[in-house]
């Protein structure tokens, strides 16, 4: 960050979750004071054509803009545009169903403010509206990869992420809206930045809590998500690979790697059945789903996890 940098924009993508959005906006008030003298503004970007977030944003004295184009990639690109147009020095993404822990923003800003990082990735932990099943817990479906403080990362999700606006201006990289209905736009975006030399650092003490509703704490949902992540992991890598011959090679590699993982998962699942181990069955099922997704993504399949956001 330059010596004159002073403006951080917190962007909150939102879609028809007014109660959870209100909880987040209330919690952000103290974080704005926590990083003084930096100026902090909160911007709600509403992807609901009916504008369900407008009243919540107004009550919290947060800025508000609608984004009529459906999908998270379009919403996140709107956030990039708003940050650059408003002259922000850094853009922070946080999801509308999350709540930051004390010290979150101060800890997230620190590596960027010290000039050590272009992107800073905080930690996300899940809590549940109702206790999840033993199978979901044993399978580690909501367990995320841990990084040490200050560790360099090749990619990062955008549900708790600071991005230097300088790197956005220098590279011109945006979210690929071809991932709008499949998800995975964040990993593709940060991977593209990393390949252009952006420094992505982990800040695990910048913690937010992700509140998981009951409809996501089911076996069918977590397996579909594992499959989708597999497809977008493969597809994102292929899209960023230059040259037709190299892309074909990557496609073949992902089909082989995904198939091998799915077979290994089937073996672990079978061991779990024989041994009556919930952990082996759940982890085997997760590996099958993720591996099958990688193979499918390598073969060109797109799993549309998100229906168009203008549909009820």
Automatic annotation (TrEMBL):
Keywords: Glycosyltransferase, Transferase. The keyword Disulfide bond does not apply. GO terms for molecular function: glycosyltransferase activity. Coiled coil: none annotated. Residues 10-168 form the Glycosyltransferase 2-like domain. InterPro entries: Glyco_trans_2-like, Nucleotide-diphossugar_trans. Pathway: Cell wall biogenesis; cell wall polysaccharide biosynthesis. The keyword Transmembrane helix does not apply. It comes from the Bacteria. Its EC number is 2.4.-.-. PANTHER family: GALACTOFURANOSYLTRANSFERASE GLFT2 (PTHR43179:SF12), RHAMNOSYLTRANSFERASE WBBL (PTHR43179). Belongs to the glycosyltransferase 2 family. This is Glycosyltransferase. It comes from Microbacterium gawkjiense.
């Amino acid at each position: 960050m330059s010596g004159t940098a002073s403006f951080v924009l917190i962007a909150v993508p939102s879609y028809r979750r007014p109660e959870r959005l209100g909880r987040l906006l209330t919690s952000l008030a103290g974080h704005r004071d926590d990083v003084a003298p930096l100026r902090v503004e909160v911007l709600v970007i509403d992807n609901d054509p009916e504008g369900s977030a407008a009243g919540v944003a107004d009550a919290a004295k947060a800025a508000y803009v609608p984004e009529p184009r459906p999908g998270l990639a379009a919403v996140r690109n709107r956030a990039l545009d708003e940050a650059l147009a408003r002259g922000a020095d850094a853009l922070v993404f946080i999801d509308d169903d999350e709540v930051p822990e004390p010290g979150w923003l101060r800890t997230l800003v620190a590596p960027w403010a010290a000039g050590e990082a272009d992107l800073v990735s905080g930690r996300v932990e899940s809590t549940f509206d109702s206790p999840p099943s033993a199978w979901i817990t044993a399978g580690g479906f909501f367990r995320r990869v841990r990084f040490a403080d200050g560790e360099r990362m090749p990619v990062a999700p955008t549900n708790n992420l600071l991005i230097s606006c300088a790197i956005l201006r220098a590279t011109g990289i945006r979210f690929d809206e071809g991932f709008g209905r499949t998800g995975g736009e964040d990993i593709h975006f940060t991977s593209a930045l990393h390949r252009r030399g952006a420094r992505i650092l982990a800040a695990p003490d910048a913690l937010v809590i992700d509140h998981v509703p009951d409809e996501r704490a089911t076996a069918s949902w977590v397996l579909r998500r594992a499959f989708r992540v597999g497809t977008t992991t493969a597809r994102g890598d292929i899209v960023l690979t230059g040259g037709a011959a190299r892309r074909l090679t990557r496609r073949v590699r992902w089909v082989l790697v995904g198939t091998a993982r799915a077979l290994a998962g089937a073996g672990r699942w079978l061991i779990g059945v024989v041994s009556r181990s919930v952990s082996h069955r759940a982890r085997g099922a997760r590996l099958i789903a993720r591996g099958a997704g990688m193979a499918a993504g390598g073969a060109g399949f797109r799993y549309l996890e998100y229906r168009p956001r203008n549909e009820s």
